[in-house]
Write a structure and sequence with these properties.
Elements lengths: L2 E5 H18 L2 E2 L1 E2 L18 E4 L2 H11 L2 E6 L4 H7 L5 E4 L2 H12 L2 H4 L4 E5 L25 H4 L9 E3 L8 H20 L5 E3 L13 H15 L2 E4 L3 H4 L3 E13 L2 E6 L3 H4 L2 H4 L6 E4 L17 E3 L9 E5 L8 E6 L9 E5 L19 E5 L5 E5 L3 H6 L3
Parallel strand pairs: 1-18, 2-10, 3-4, 4-5, 5-6, 6-7, 7-8, 8-9, 9-10, 12-15
Antiparallel strand pairs: 1-11, 11-12, 11-17, 13-14, 13-17, 15-16, 18-19
Helix pairs in contact: 1-8, 7-8
Bound molecules: pyridoxal-5'-phosphate (PLP).
């Protein structure tokens, strides 16, 4: 059976770095549930983080029920019933536009948790400072619906708001944060300097746990920003928590030739189980499991198994176009070359499939959903969820 396997040791490696960074910088770091919500793993690293950020009511419930600590909620569009429920437990409630804030501020500002200071409200701003390479992930593109621009704030009634929130980065280093903070200061510095504003949420996209990430610069930037405006700083990474912590393990179901291509059909699908491979798009590392051979270092070392990393070598005699068992002609994970010929029953492990993958899966074509497995620090594998026909059926009616 296909499975997502998440390594507790790898998660703890990442969250230890995040805790140490937060301590050195004097800020708070929370997990963005949109990137990683494998809640059965939360008890193993929750002590390292300050809580979670939620993209709406259901993620906020998950944060409250399975993580605890602080819940920061931001959504581009709330409905009244969600606002009423969120007021009962969220700590930050951030709005995407002035019109949403004006629509709900009466409910929020009259709530006992707002009046007692347990819940604070903020506004997502758009500094119009693009630093990334992928327009699909750029909230600063002209016409962006994410966050409000400085010109829209002129003359606005901001009474009741105490926070600003920006999220403009994606898989980026702290030099891009530095550029963004300069734009934030130019456009919104007058608000942040006023006594009314007590927190600044710098969103996600900080690749803090990557070896090359310049953490010293992040620490300096956070300290300088705190000193400049005298407020609390929050960071809400998703990817930095779960990067290099999980794999998707699949089995070769069929092999055949077509028009000069050698094709391999697996029991996992790009469109249903790893959609960012098609959306981003990107080419994941794949490992062919071969017991007894020299092992290479994937993110998760599965007990007793060794791996051979695939290549993209176009001249390799063992080159395959790998795809899934769905009707989508483009359900192709990519072209991979292996150290030997594949055979039906071979196991292939795709690297780095925990973040933004497990949260996006579907059962398109009724393809069985991979099991969810935790790998404990002693190497033991624990299957925490198996999916059945009933799971597929019940989501559809
Ligand atoms: C508002 C907000 N916060 C945090 C994140 C997490 O970003 P990342 O997983 O890249 O760190 C995202 C991702 O899209 C986001 O939209």
């Amino acid at each position: 059976m296909a499975s997502f396997i998440v390594s507790i040791a790898a998660l703890k490696r990442n969250t230890t770095i995040l805790r140490e960074t937060a301590e050195a910088a004097g800020c708070r770091i929370v997990l963005a549930l949109k990137g990683f919500s494998c809640w059965k793993s939360f008890p193993y690293f929750r002590d390292d983080l300050s809580g979670c950020c939620a993209s709406g009511l259901w993620e906020a419930f998950l944060a409250r029920d399975y993580f605890g600590k602080q819940v920061l909620t931001y959504s581009p569009g709330y409905i009244e019933s969600e606002i009423r429920e969120l007021c009962e437990f969220t700590h930050h409630l951030d709005f995407n536009s002035l019109s949403q804030w004006y629509q709900f501020r009466e409910i929020v500002m009259n709530h006992p948790r707002f009046l007692s200071g347990e819940m604070h409200c903020g506004l997502r701003v758009n500094p119009e400072c693009s630093t990334g390479d992928t327009p699909l992930y750029d909230p600063c593109v002209p016409g962006s619906r994410l966050g409000i621009t400085a010109d829209q704030l002129v003359g606005a009634d901001l009474n009741g708001l105490s926070g600003l929130h920006f999220h403009t980065l994606c898989e980026q280093n702290s030099d891009d944060l530095e550029k963004t903070l300069a734009a934030i200061d130019e456009k919104f510095g007058h608000l942040l300097r006023s006594e009314q504003f007590t927190y600044l949420n710098m969103g996600g996209g900080h690749w803090i746990t990557k070896p090359f990430y310049d953490r010293e610069r992040l620490i300096r930037l956070v300290r300088e920003t705190k000193a400049r405006y005298d407020l609390e700083i929050w960071l809400e990474p998703g990817e930095a928590v779960a990067i290099h912590t999980g794999v998707l393990r699949a089995t070769v179901l069929d092999l055949f030739d077509s028009a000069g291509y050698r094709l391999a059909i697996l029991d996992i699908s790009a469109t249903a189980h790893m959609p960012d491979v098609l959306e981003m798009p990107y080419h994941p590392d794949a490992y062919l499991v071969d017991a007894g051979k020299v092992s290479v270092g994937p993110a998760v070392t599965l007990a007793g198994e060794s791996y051979h990393l695939s290549t993209e070598d176009p001249a390799s005699p063992h080159r395959y176009r790998i795809g899934g068992p769905t009707c989508l002609a483009g359900d192709v994970t990519g072209d991979f070359a292996f150290h030997r010929e594949l055979k039906v029953g071979d196991v292939i492990v795709f690297d780095d499939m925990a973040h933004y993958t497990m949260v996006k899966t579907t059962t398109f074509n009724g393809v069985p959903h991979p099991d969810i497995v935790l790998q404990h620090e002693d190497g033991r594998l624990e299957t925490v969820r198996e999916f059945t026909y009933a799971d597929f059926r019940d989501r559809l009616g």
